[in-house]
Structures
1.
Amino acid sequence: MEHEIVIKRRQGLSSIDFKELWSYRELLYFLAWRDIKLRYKQTVIGVGWAILQPFLMMVVFSIIFGRIAGVPSDSVPYPIFSFTGLLLWNIFSNSLSNSSQSLISSASIIQKVYLPRILLPTASVIVTLVDFLFAGIIFIGILIYYNFTPNLIGILLVIPMIIFTLISSLGMGFFLSALNVKFRDVRYALPFFIQLLIFMTPVIYPISITPLKYQWIVALNPMTGIIESFRTALLYETPVDWNLLTISVVMGMILFVFGVWYFLRTEKTFADVI
Amino acid sequence: MTEPIIKVENLSKRYWISHEKGPSYATLRDELVKIVQKPAEWIMGKKSEKEHIWALKDVNFSVNSGEIVGVIGANGAGKSTLLKVLTRITPPSDGRVALRGRVGSLLEVGTGFHPELTGRENIYLNGAILGMSRKEISSKFSEIVQFSGVEKFLDTPLKRYSSGMNVRLAFSVAAHLEPEILLIDEVLAVGDVAFQKKSMSKMEEVSKKGRTILFVSHNMASVVNLCKRTILLDGGKIVMDGPTSEVIEYYMGLKENKIAEVVWSNLDLAPGNEEAKLHKVRILSDDGRPISEADIQKETQIEMSYWNLKEGAKLFVSMHLISSQGITVLTTFNAPSVSLTKDEWYDKEKPKGLFKSICKIPANFLNEGMYFISVFITSYDGMMINHAVKEKVISFNVVDTGGMRKEYSGPWVGVVRPRLSWSTEYEGNK
C-alpha cells in the first residue's frame, strides 16, 4: 500500500509533517481563494475597498500627524512617508485580525473533517497579500503624483521585507488563532491591541523621534525594524540601520517559532474545545 | 493472509469533564490567575479537574479490504467518538489505529459549504476540503452537477438555495469521493425520500466497487441493506461484532424489554381519543397462556382489547407485524375478505364497553427472531379515522424449536419461514 496512516496518542508537541503539508497545498490554495472571494461579496464597490481603505487612512494620518501634529518626515512628503509604513503595517495588522478568527470561523470544518489545521490561519495571512497588491498600485500613483523617485535598493528590498513581515504575521497569527479557540477574549482584546500597536511602531512617525538609547526596546517589536529599514532604503539617502533590522527580524523569527510551538501544542484539543 | 486495511488496537478516548459553571470555554482572566498562582502547572498544561469519562475504552477490531461494516449503538455509546478518532479529528488517549489506504470521511455533508459562494464554487471548495484534488473535481464536475440536479442554479449563491437543493448538492460532492477507505456518519438521513433512495443506491454502487466502508448509523434499515457485518458499541466498548442481522437483533433486544403484555387500566391514561381507547395487548400461546417467547412450531395469538366509548360506533382493529429490522412483515384487519374466520363484530354497531379481538398467527409461518406489533383502532364512515394508534406496542420472540431443522442447521435467512410444498420430477436422461 502506498499510504499507511497510523493514529496514536499524541503527547506534547506534534511535529510538523512537511510531506503532509505539501500534499495539502491545493487545499491551502482553495482556502485562500475562498477568503478572497468572500471578502467583498455583497459589497457595492467590492475590491475598491482594498484601495480605498489604505488611501483614506493615509489621508487621515497626513492631515492629523503630518499637518496638525507636524510629525517630521524630512525631505519626503508626509503622505509618501506614512503610506510606505502603512503598506507593510497593513499586511501585519490585517493578518492578525483575519487569522485570529480563522479557526473559530471554520469550527464546522475542524469538527467534521481532518486537515492540517495550521492551513487555516496560513490561508488568512496569505490573503492579506492581495490587499497589499492593491495598496501597492495606489502607492505608485502617489509617487507619480508627487513626482518622487524611490531608491532602487528599496525596491529590491520589497520582497525580503514582505517575507519578514509574513514571518512575524504568521507567528502572531498561529498564536492568536489557537488562543482564540480557548479564550474568546481575543476577539475583544485584539482590535484594541492593534490600535495601540500602530502607535508603538514607527508607521506614522520616524523612529528618530524616540531617544536613541531606547530604540532597541522599540525594535523588539518586529515591525519596527522592518518598516523603518524599508522606508529608509526606499525613500532616504541615509544608510539603513542594520542593527535595528537584525533585532526585529530575529524577534520575528522567535515569534514565528513560538507561534508554531503554541499552535501545535494546543492543536490536538481544537475539535473538542472549539 | 493479507493485512487488514483498518486495524484498531486497544483504542481509548478519555474526555475530561469540567464542573465549572458558565461558558464552556475558559476566560483569559481565569487563566491569568492560574498562571500567577500555579505557573508550572500552566506551562505543563495540567488539568486541575479530575473527572473524566471514557468515550471509548479498549476497542479492538479490524476490517479487511472490501468489507462494509456497520457501527451501531445508543446515543453516547461512542460511535461518533470512534469515527472522530479514525478520521483524525481528535487524537485517541490510548491505543493505535492503522489505516492502510487513502481515507475519506463523511461526518456530515456539505462541510465547509459557504452560503455566500455559488454552487460551482462550493463544489470545488467542499471537494477540496473532503480531500479531492482540483483535477479530480474538474473531471467529475459534470457528473456531480448532474447527480445533484441543480444545474440551473450553479452560479447562484448557496444562500438562495432551498435546504433540499443544498443537501442534494452536498451529497453529490460527497458521493463522488473515491478513497480506498470511506468513513461515514449518518449522512444518508438527508433530503427527501426520492433523493434518499438515490443516495442509497449510490452507496450500494460505491460499496460494490470493492471500497472499504465503515458506516455509523441509527438507521437499522440502511445498516441491514449495506453491511454484512456490524459492530455494536455500548458505553465505549464493543459489545458484539458479527453478522448484521444477529447484532441488530441483539441490540433491539437490549433496547426494548420483551414485554408480553401491555395493559392500560386507567381509561384516562390509555392511548386513544374520546371514541375508542386501547386497553390491553398481549401475546398468547396456542392454548391461551400469556407468553413472550413464541414457539415457531405453534400457533401464536395476538390479543387486543379496547374500549368503545361511543354508542353505535363501527370500529375495526388492524395490526401490523414488524420484524426486528424494522420491516413490516404484514398488515391485517378483521374484515370478512381479510380474515379466515368470520368476525361477528366487524362493521356492526357496537354498544359502549370493552371489546377483545384476537388474531392468530399460524405455526411455521414466521422466521425465528423478534417481532413487534402495532395496533390501530379505526372507524370507517366515508373516511378512515384512527382513534387509537399504538406503534410497536409489544414485542415477542419467535424461538426456533427445531421443527424444520432435521436436515439443515445453519442460519435461516428470510422474514418469514413458512412450509411450502415442493416437488421434483425426473424429466428423463436428456
Note: The domain at 6-254 of chain B is CATH 3.40.50.300 (Rossmann fold).
2.
Amino acid sequence: MKKLYFSNILAFLFFAATSVFAQEEHHADSTAEHATEAVTSHSEAGEAHEEGKLDLGHLIMHHIGDDHKWEFAHGVSVYLPCIVKTEKGIEVFSSSNLEDEHGNPVEYNGLKLEHGKIHAVDGSHVLDFSITKNVASMLLSAVLLIVIFLSVAGSYKKRGLQSPKGFQSLIEPIIIFIRDEVVKNNIGEKHYRRFLPYLLTLFFFIWFNNILGLLPGGANVTGNIAVTLVLAVITFFVTNLNGKSTYWGHIFAMPGVPKWLLVILTPVEILGMFIKPISLMIRLFANITAGHIIMLSFLGLIFILKVWAVVPVVTLFSVFMNIIELLVAFLQAFIFTMLASSYIGSAVEEGHH
Amino acid sequence: MELLTPDLGLIVWQLVVFGILFFVLAKFAWKPIVSSLHEREQSIDDALEMAAKTRQEMAELKAGNEKLIAEARAERDALIKRAKEASDALIADAKAEAQKVATEEMDKARAAFSQERANAVAALKADAANLSLEIAEKILRNQLADRSAQEKLVSDLLSDAKLN
C-alpha cells in the first residue's frame, strides 16, 4: 500500500517535471504501436512469419528493465541467483528454476515469475533481494572501479611526487577536473575536501555504469529509478546533515524578505529541499532510459520495416546515437555531481550578508 | 509504470554496493590520490616560488655587484684624478723651483760677469795706461828735445786720456 502511494507520487512528479521524457516514452509507445501495426499489416498481406510478430514496445521495456537472468544475446543468458525472503524464511536458488527450456515461467517452491517479478503462488508477501541483472552489473562496475582506482592509487604511492604515468595520467585530469571545476567551485576552498571522496565516488560510479549500460547486452543500471533514488537520497542526507545556520536561515526565514511573504516563501523553500534530490533522481533516470529507448527503437526499425535498404541508415543513426550517448554518459555523471556539489555548497556556505 | 516503481531489492543492493564502494574508494583510493595530488601541487608551487625567489636574489646580487663595480670605478677615477693633481702640483713646484734656481744662477752669473768685466776693464785700463806710458815715454824720449814740444804733448795726452 505504502509502495503504491510512493509510486503514485513518483508518477506525478515524473510527468510534471520531465515532459521531455514523457515525450520520449510516448515516442516509444507509438513506435511500439507502429510495430504492432506494421507486423499486423505484414501478416495480413499473406506472408506468415511467426517470428516476425514482435511487440517492440514490450521488447524495449524488457531490455531497459531489470531481470533475474542476464541475456547477452538471444538465447545466450546467464541465470543469476535469486535471494527471496518468504514467510518460510530466506531462500536462495538459481533463476533457471523459474523458467522452462522455452523461457516460459514455471512454479518453483511455491514461487513464480510474473512480469519479471517473483511472486508467491499462494499470494503471500515476498521480499526479493535477488542478484538481478542490474545488481550484477552494478557489482561488476564496483569491482572495476575498485580495481582501477586502487591501481591508480598504488601508482601515486609508488611514484610519490613524480609526474603521472600510464593509466594514472588518463585518470588524473578527470579527478582534477572534478575536484577543481566541480567540487571546489561549488563548495568552496574551506569545506570541499570533506565532500570530495563522496562526490568523486558518485561521479565515477554514475559514469562507469552509464558506459557499461551502453555496451551490447549491458544493463540499464543508471536508468533504473531505484538506483537514482538511492543516489539522490544519499545526496539529500549529505546536504541536509551538513546544513549550516545560513542554509536553514534561508529556508525558514529568508533574510531581507517581508514577514508576510515568508508564509508563501517558507513552504516553497521546504518543498525545494525535496525537489532538488527528486530532480536529480529523475534527470539521470530519464536521460539514460531515454537514450536506451532511442537506440533500441532505431534498431527495432529494421525488424519492423523488414527492408534491407534501411539497414545502412539505421546503422548510421545507431552509431551516431551511440556517440551521443557516450557524451551523455559523461555529461549526466558530470551534471549529477555538479548539482550535488552545488546543493552541498549551498548547505555549508557561511553567511556573507 | 513498472519503470517508475523502485524495487526494494535493488534499493537495498544499491545502498550496500555504493556504501562499500564509497568506503573502499575513500580509504584506499581517494585518500592517497587526493593527498598525493595536493602534495605534488604543493611541491610544484614551492619549487616555483623558490625559483622566483632565487631569481630575485640573483638580480639583487647582480645589482649589488654592479654597484660595487661602479663604486670601485669611481674610487679608481678619484684616485687617478688625485694622483694627477698631485703630480701636476709636483711638476709645477719643480718647475717654479727650477725657474727660481735658474734665475738666481743667472743673476749670480750676471753679477759675477759684471764684476769680471769691471775687473778686466780696470786691468785693461791699467795695462793701457802702462803701455801708453811706456809708448809715451819712448816717444817722449825721442821727441822731447825741446821744451815746448814736450808741454804740448803732455797736454794733448791728457786731453785724450780723459776720453777713456
Note: Residues 184 and 192 of chain A are 6 Å apart (CA to CA).
3.
Amino acid sequence: MSISVKNLSKHYGKQKAVDAISFEAKPGRILGFLGPNGAGKSTTMRMLTGYLEPTSGTAEIFGKSIESQAIEAKKHIGYLPENTPLYADMYVKEFLSFVGQTYKTDHLAVRIDEVIKMVGLTPEQHKKIGMLSKGYRQRVGLAQAIIHDPEVLILDEPTSGLDPNQLVDIRQLIKKLGAAKTVVISTHIMQEVEAICDDIIILSKGKIVANNSLEGLKKAHQQQSLEDIFRKLTA
Amino acid sequence: MYAVFKRELFSFLSSMVAYITIAIFLLVSGLLLWFFPGTSILDYGYAELGGFFSLVPYLFMFLIPAITMRSFAEERREGTFELLITRPIRIWQITVAKYLASLVLVLFGLIPTLIYYYSVSKLGFPEGNIDSGSVIGSYIGLFLLGAAFTSIGIFSSALTKNQVIAFVICAALCAFSYLGFDYTSEIAAFQPIAGGIANLGINEHYTAISRGVLDTRDLIYFVTFSVLFLLITKLIIGGKR
C-alpha cells in the first residue's frame, strides 16, 4: 500500500474537520476525493502532505509515518495545493530548478526539460510565473509536483478554473501519470470522476460515507448517476 | 537548505526591495554624516566615525524590518508556504535559510560604508590618523547588531500574514531591545538591579564592542540573542500546523 490512513482526525476546537477516517490507496490507480465544500477533503490532503499535523490517528506513505518520519515520507509525495500557490516573481525554469534542488533531484537540467515537455509548458517556458495565464500556472503547478518523479501524487482540485481544452489536456496528463503512480485528486466535477478515477471516496462532514471503486459504487446504487449518488450520500 | 537560501537572496535581488532599502540607507547615512550641519563630520571638526556608529543602529531599526517583513508573512499570505513546508526540508532549515539571506542583504548595505572609513582616514591630520581598532570593533559590533535585529525581523514575520504588522512589531522590538533596557534600568524602583537590566539590552554590548575590545561575553550575548529568536520562530512555525 502506498498510502495507508488509520483513524485520522483533525479537530479545530470543538469542530471536527476530519473525523477518524481510514482508507488505503494502491499504485496504478487514481483515487477521487469527493464531497461538498468543507467536508474535509483539503484538510485530509494537507495532513497527508505534512502541512497540517493530525489531532490523532496515523498516516503512512510507503510505510513511513508522515509525523515521525516526515522527511522520508515527503520525498515520495508530489503535491499541488488548492489554488496553485507559486512564486510569481520567479521564472518557470528557475522555479522548477529550485523545487528540484529541494528534493536533491539528479540530472536536474535534463529532468526540467522533460517535465516541461510532459505538461505542455514549452511555449511559455522562458516567462515569469506571474505573467502566465491560469491554465499555464496550473501546468507549472503540476510540473513542480512531478519534478522529482514521486510515487504518490496528491492534487487538490487540479482542474478548477481551466477552460474545456485545458481540462482535457490536464486530465489526460493525470490519467497518464496515474498508470504508474498512486494519484489522489479532489474535485467537484462528476464528469471528471467518471473520466479518470478508478476508486472513489466520498466525504461528508469529516466522515467517509462511501469508499468503493467507480463500478462498485454504481452497482451498489442500482446504476444511478454519480450526481444522484453524491447528493443522496452527502445531503 | 542552500536552495531556500539561494531563492530568498535571488528574490531580494530580482525585486526592488534590496536596491531601494540599501540605497535609502546609504543616502540617509551619507547625508547625516557629511551634509546635515547637526551631525556632519565636516562641521564637527574631528576626523572620526563615532557619530556614524551611534547613528546606524537607528537606521537599522527601519532598514532591517523593511528587509525581513516579507520573509514568512508573504509566503503565508500567498499560500506558497504550504508548498515550502511540504518539501523534505526541516523547519529550522527554512528558518535559518531565510535568516541568512536577510543577513547577507544587511551586509551588502554595510559594505559600501567602508568608503567612509577611507574618507575619514584621509581627512585626519596627519593623514591616516584614525583609530582603526575601534573602527574594526565597531563594524563587528554593527554586524552583530544587524544579526540580532534580523533575527527579531524573521520572528516578527512569522507572527502574522500582514507585512505591515510584521514591520511595526519588528521596529518596536528592535527599538526596545536596543534602548528599552537602558531606559528601564533608570527607573528608581529598579536601582538595585540597574546594572543587570542594562546588561540585557543590546546598547550595552554594542558600545562595549565599539570601543574595539572584543569580549567573548558580548559575542556570546549576540549569538544567544539571535539563536533565541530563531528558536522561537521555529516553534511558532511548527506550532501553527
Note: Residues 198-235 of chain A form one domain.
